[in-house]
Amino acid sequence: MWHVTRALRHRHSPQRWRRSCRVFVRGRRECREVNIDARGQRIVTVGVVDTVPLFRDGLATLIERTPWARMVGHSASQQGCLVMIDQLHPDVVLLVSELAPHSQFIHTLTTGGDAPRVVVVVSDPDRSPRYVTGALAAGAYGAVARNADPHRYADAIRSVWHSHRYLDPSLRAMVASVEHAGANAGERGSHPLRMPLSRREFQVMQLIAEGMENAAIAKVLFLSVETVRTHVKSILRKLSARDRTHAVTIAFRSGLLQLTPLPPAETNPEENPVHAGSPPAS
Q1: Beta strand 142-145 with 92-96: parallel, antiparallel or unpaired?
Q2: % of the chain exceeding 90 in pLDDT
Q3: What CATH number matches the domain at 199-254, 1.10.10.10, 3.50.30.30, 3.30.499.10, 1.10.3720.10?
Q4: Which DSSP category does 125 fall into?
Q5: Which of 2, 81, 244, 247 could anchor a disulfide with 49, C-beta 3.0 to 4.6 Å?
Q6: Is the whole model's pTM more than 0.85, yes or no?
Q7: What pLDDT, in 10s, does the model give residues 54-69?
């Protein structure tokens, strides 16, 4: 593997530089842009996944005001999160806990050599020691309370990018206070899957839940039908499911899949589930 790079001035921010990097791996060429600042320091790329537009906009503003970070995309769904990671390759992903109620989705995101560092944004319903420890065990690098001060988010992004675990002080105190206490059996996160799905298997599982057959799934994901069959067999094995219908039932019961509410009639959401980040209007 080798890299060919060149440095250019950032089009919108003169104080930043843009480095175009071509990566050659096993005969396959990929072209990605890596951002660096005027001192040659790497800029961390961040993706935001949250169901509340106002919160996504707030995080976008915070990240754009952080000189060493840049928001590359945002999404409001699990599917959009997967697309964002595949297309935009963020270094760090801020994921709201509502989209990972049993931590299964966290494991899906953090599986693979190109996986991003995931920071879970813990909402009030999930603010429990069992959920936080379960999220970290599933592969999250950090956790921040949703109502945390803005600088906590910046601290979390910086820490996980440097491969350091980060836990919001308020969450750390909560976990420490019940460190040796038993958790309630009915708490969210109490029914983990023994063999979590890969990102590609998760995409196939979502399309199965939508009622698609293998041929249709192959067209959507640009795969061969035989490859889809292989993924389906792996899904059935990992979920210990008898058939596709049983697999869908298990996926919803375990929290791996979630029912997505329809948007209000007066709104016109864009079809693309992932949106590239852009600097907020001044």
Answers
A1: unpaired
A2: 32
A3: 1.10.10.10
A4: G
A5: 81
A6: no
A7: 999 999 999 999 999 9
